């Protein structure tokens, strides 16, 4: 198992987990089950990933075989953009729990600070970027005027009801984090954001540390996560796995470049949720803290790779302009 961090509500969370984004449904249950056998305890899922039924099947199998108990696991899901209205927040978590086969999740994020028009589950689930047949025909996304404070208050009610243990925020910029802290009755425990050497977001990391909000990194390998999505930005960018600085540091420690990237994050206290279908890579990721310790100079070299390059940017979703990071 990885090391454990204590969140601001006292809950214990592994620093290394398995991200469930893009795990195919056909193999998801087995991958989750096998990851639990290898020692993984944190599983980061979401409404939008469309594989929570299979994630739940993998969890159930491991619990039924007494490999773990529910209390041993830290299960994460996320509220999708189409369910931001307060009367729809509980609808979303209820479906998450049903699909996962659980009574509660340990951490529930607001996936993006963007409110899409609500889509009934009978029409499409998960809805993704769909916001109605008319909108789809026009190639646009319909939105609703829902202030984030209203969505957050509904999330707090989920904690009160015991459906979630803690609240997370995701893809928030610094101003939105600060605003959230101004109105939160129950403080968010985590901020999940894109984070890699091309996008270090140093001020945001420091601000979260100052306010005891645990940062969780996604896309730790930078463009690698987006090449398969045919992102021109990712395809034209030097992969971090092949960057001369990362390769030099990996060779000095006798480890893989992926381990250098992950250790760079965890050594700064940032949690990681890398995905892999290969058992040897899963073990490498889980034990990265034991594999190497970067020197202060090496950390400085990697930090210097920052060019504020963001791959997951809602600014141009289906031609819409969502200025979260503008």
From TrEMBL:
Keywords, comma-separated and alphabetical: Oxidoreductase
Site description Lowers pKa of active site Tyr, residues in chain: 78
InterPro entries (alphabetical): AKR, Aldo/ket_reductase_CS, NAD(P)_OxRdtase_dom_sf, NADP_OxRdtase_dom
Active-site residue numbers: 49
NADP-dependent oxidoreductase domain span: 26-306
Gene Ontology MF terms: oxidoreductase activity, acting on the CH-OH group of donors, NAD or NADP as acceptor
UniProt keyword Acyltransferase present: no
Any single Pfam family the record assigns to this protein: Aldo_ket_red
Sequence positions that bind substrate: 111
Keyword Methyltransferase set for record: no
Family per record: Belongs to the aldo/keto reductase family.
Protein name, as recorded: Trifunctional aldehyde reductase/xylose reductase/glucose 1-dehydrogenase (NADP(+))
Organism in which the protein naturally occurs: Maudiozyma humilis
